[in-house]
């Protein structure tokens, strides 16, 4: 059955209401009024569905609700807030998880936002991260949810890192682990010391919060060949771990510094400090 475009029905009613009340409200007042009208619409009887929008979705089973949600996305029909609210108000995670294997990036992103950091979805989130076919934004969304409960995701992140799969994402997740773990610390430190994104990986050490990383960060920041962006990341990481670095440095010839200074100047923030 084709999903009902309730938002489209609301728009029709809204257009009629706005025509009937033309000139009665300012543009700002309409902006405040429309959300209230939409909420009221949720409790308004709609002949096409023989119920109010809230009643319509409340009467569905978890599977029917999930199938209706998927059909909205598949047919590019706007998903009503009332449908999302009903999904969020129930424990529909098990019914939603299969949708995480869909090829459509919009569907997967929507489902990730609905499920949130529910640990039952973590295996599917890791599948998203380690799949070469996954959309970049979808991977970012999955990583964010895993980071919210990094301690629960730690063992799987360690396993995938050891296997060399989606390593940067695994480092990002491991950097949010709160429980102290020697293997996690060594992995984050070794990744920083290896060739690669040292600026980003300095941030991982800062997030993890183990002050034993300080000597390595201080040694790296002394390198006069590093650029402005890496210097700033290192300085932030050092300060986050309770250290400090105040040696004067001149980045006036650094292309990234000049680019950032130009943008800052055009936006009225003045010149950047050169160190």
Task: Give a written overview of the molecule.
With 275 residues, this protein is mainly alpha-helical. Helices cover 63% and strands 0% of the residues. It has helices at 6-20, 27-41, 53-58, 62-74, 81-89, 93-96, 105-115, 122-130, 136-148, 150-162, 167-174, 182-193, 198-208, 214-221, 228-240, 255-266. The model has no long low-confidence stretch (mean pLDDT 92).
Rg on CA atoms, Å: 25 Å
Overall mean pLDDT stands at 92
Q: Care to count the β-strands?
A: 0
Query: What is the approximate shape?
Result: elongated
Quaternary: single chain
Low-confidence stretches: none
Measured between the Cα atoms of the first and last residue, the distance is: 63 Å
Derived structural class = mainly alpha
Short summary:
With 275 residues, the protein is mainly alpha-helical.
Record keyword descriptors for this entry:
275 residues; 16 helices
Helices and strands, with pairings:
Elements: H1 6-20, H2 27-41, H3 53-58, H4 62-74, H5 81-89, H6 93-96, H7 105-115, H8 122-130, H9 136-148, H10 150-162, H11 167-174, H12 182-193, H13 198-208, H14 214-221, H15 228-240, H16 255-266
């Amino acid at each position: 059955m084709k999903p009902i475009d309730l938002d489209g029905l609301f728009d029709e009613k809204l257009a009629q209401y706005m025509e009937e009340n033309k000139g009665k409200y300012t543009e700002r007042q309409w902006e405040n009024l429309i959300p209230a009208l939409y909420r009221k619409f949720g409790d308004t009887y709609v002949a096409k569905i023989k119920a109010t929008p809230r009643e319509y979705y409340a009467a569905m089973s978890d599977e029917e609700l999930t199938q209706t949600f998927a059909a909205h996305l598949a047919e590019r029909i706007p998903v009503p807030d009332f449908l999302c609210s009903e999904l969020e108000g129930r424990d529909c995670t098990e019914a939603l998880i299969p949708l995480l294997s869909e090829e459509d990036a919009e569907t997967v992103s929507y489902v990730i936002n609905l499920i949130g950091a529910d640990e039952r979805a973590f295996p599917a989130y890791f599948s998203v991260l380690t799949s070469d076919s996954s959309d970049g934004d979808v991977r970012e969304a999955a990583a964010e949810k895993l980071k919210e409960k990094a301690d629960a995701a730690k063992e799987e992140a360690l396993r995938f890192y050891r296997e060399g799969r989606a390593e940067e994402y695994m480092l990002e997740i491991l950097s949010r682990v709160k429980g102290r773990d020697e293997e996690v610390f060594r992995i984050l430190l070794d990744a920083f010391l290896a060739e690669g994104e040292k600026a980003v990986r300095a941030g991982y050490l800062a997030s993890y919060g183990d002050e034993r990383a300080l000597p390595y960060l201080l040694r790296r920041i002394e390198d006069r060949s590093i650029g402005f962006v890496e210097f700033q990341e290192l300085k932030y990481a050092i300060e986050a771990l309770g250290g400090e670095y105040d040696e004067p440095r001149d980045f006036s010839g650094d292309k990234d510094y000049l680019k950032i200074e130009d943008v800052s100047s055009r936006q009225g923030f003045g010149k950047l400090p050169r160190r």
